[in-house]
């Protein structure tokens, strides 16, 4: 199975930034995304254009919100990250190092592989940080 959302690492980082920076009452602004990602606004605009063309975000007057597909992408990436992090830590890799290393490729894992890895590590309910892993 091909990678589910077909995004780049910067697009992955942007999806995570949008999700984790927005509040329930107020979407995140382009300027805040640029600040958090430590990128210039024109670079962020290009990333947002790609995410918009993939149906993962909507932009309106400087505000950015994830679409339902964008939220699915976020949840998928986070769950893959947590499953892979568990595998790395169970293999003896330091937690913070595991987190850093997994961030470099968690977005490239397809759902079949993620489920097989989850089964391999015992279908954990939480990652080593104690954050939930949600199935289904």
Strand elements, count: 3
CATH topology (level 3) name of the largest domain: Arc Repressor Mutant, subunit A
Mean pLDDT, nearest integer? 93
Instruction: Output the strand order for the largest sheet.
Output: 1-3-2
Give the arrangement of secondary structure elements.
Elements: H1 9-21, E1 28-29, H2 30-37, H3 41-53, E2 57-60, E3 63-66, H4 68-90, H5 95-103, H6 111-120
Antiparallel strand pairs: 1-3, 2-3
Helix pairs in contact: 1-2, 1-3, 1-4, 2-3, 4-5, 4-6
Commentary on this structure:
This protein is mainly alpha-helical and 136 residues long. It folds into two domains: 9-71, Arc Repressor Mutant, subunit A (Orthogonal Bundle), CATH 1.10.10.10; 75-120, Orthogonal Bundle (Diphtheria Toxin Repressor, domain 2). Helices cover 56% and strands 7% of the residues. It contains six helices and three strands. A three-stranded antiparallel β-sheet has the order 1-3-2. The chain is elongated.
What's the short story on this structure?
This protein is 56% helix and 7% strand. It has helices at 9-21, 30-37, 41-53, 68-90, 95-103, 111-120; strands spanning 28-29, 57-60, 63-66.
Structural features:
136 residues; mainly alpha; Arc Repressor Mutant, subunit A; Diphtheria Toxin Repressor, domain 2; 2 domains; three-stranded antiparallel sheet; 6 helices; 3 strands; 56% helix
């Amino acid at each position: 199975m091909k990678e589910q959302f077909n995004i780049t690492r910067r697009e992955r980082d942007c999806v995570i930034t949008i999700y984790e920076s927005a509040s329930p009452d107020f979407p995140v602004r382009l300027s805040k995304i640029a600040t958090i990602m430590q990128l210039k606004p024109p670079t962020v605009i290009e990333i947002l254009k790609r995410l918009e063309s993939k149906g993962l975000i909507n932009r309106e007057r400087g505000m950015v919100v994830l679409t339902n597909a964008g939220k699915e992408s976020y949840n998928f990436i986070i769950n893959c990250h947590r499953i892979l992090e568990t595998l790395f830590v169970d293999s003896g890799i330091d937690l913070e190092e595991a987190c850093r290393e997994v961030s470099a490729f968690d977005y490239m894992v397809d759902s079949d592989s993620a489920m097989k890895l989850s089964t391999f590590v015992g279908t954990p309910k939480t990652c080593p940080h104690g954050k939930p892993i949600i199935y289904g």
